[in-house]
Amino acid sequence: MSEIPRFTWGAGGATPAMLEAYRRDGVLVIDGFKSAAECDRLIERADILVDGFDPDQERTVFSTTSRAHAAADYFAGSGDKIRFFLEEEALDGEGRLTRPKHQAINKIGHAMHDLDPVFDAFSHDTRLDDLARALGQTQPKLLQSMYIWKPPMIGGEVVCHQDSTFLTTDPLSVVGYWFALEDATVENGCMWGIPGGHKGALRNRFHYDGAGRLVTEKLDETPFEEDRKVCLEAPKGTLIVLHGSFPHLSGPNRSPKSRRAYTLHVIDGACTYLPDNWLKRGADMPLKGFV
Ligand code: FE2
Predict the structure, then answer these.
(1) Running DSSP on this structure, what letter comes out for residue 9?
(2) Ligand 1 centroid to 102 CA: how many Å?
(3) pLDDT tens per residue across span 46-64
(4) 152 CA to middle of ligand 1, Å?
(5) What is the Å distance from ligand 1's center to 109 Cα?
(6) Which CATH code for domain 6-273?
(7) Around ion ligand 1, which residues have CB less than 5 A away?
(8) Could you tell me the pTM of the whole model?
């Protein structure tokens, strides 16, 4: 099991021990933060959203290894939408789905928290506002939501990264909230992370270049110390809080069980959101807080 301490959320909110763990490790694990019923409601809702998705109209693969999605307008325009991304291994050589669409989704993103009432209710949780403020944010704003499926047998790996690579503010402020909607185990591709790794530099930035292309810019050559990674197994309902510079990853899912999770990324509205970030929102959808 992980060397990372585990906490539960009580009436007093974030405790000094939680804050100390977050500052030391860059990650904070809170078991039982959401009830099984809340997790199930989100799973049921995501299934309904996928019912309305027509993969014949849009087939965009999301992969952290090939980045094919980065060239697709469907991805680039998804910052203020609800869009569906497929697993790389769910398509054959001709681009045809090899399985039913409900078993082929890599993730749904990136604004369910604003656009869907069930996701809105799950996301706008005042405890998450309290926690973000305890972690140092002065104006917590919900920027991005992702529903990550990690389907059985073909769930793709996520290579080691820092979330501030994708959502950069000046100064850095992003905090990730990752919720296990099902038990996440080594077998079905749980998260791993490098304790204390958030104290290192931001290695990369994924952003628009001057020609309007999405690029990954190398900022720092220091490799991640992946030999120090620890597993972050998470029973259903667990909240894992990630510092924006915390290096984390997950393996592929070759098991017969899915590993559904939901993530929210929160930034401090007092910081500057860099204009070349990939994620854009329309003027009619300003960022909102939790309350
Ligand atoms: Fe991440």
Answers:
(1) -
(2) 23
(3) 999 999 998 877 777 777 7
(4) 20
(5) 13
(6) 2.60.120.620
(7) 163
(8) 0.94
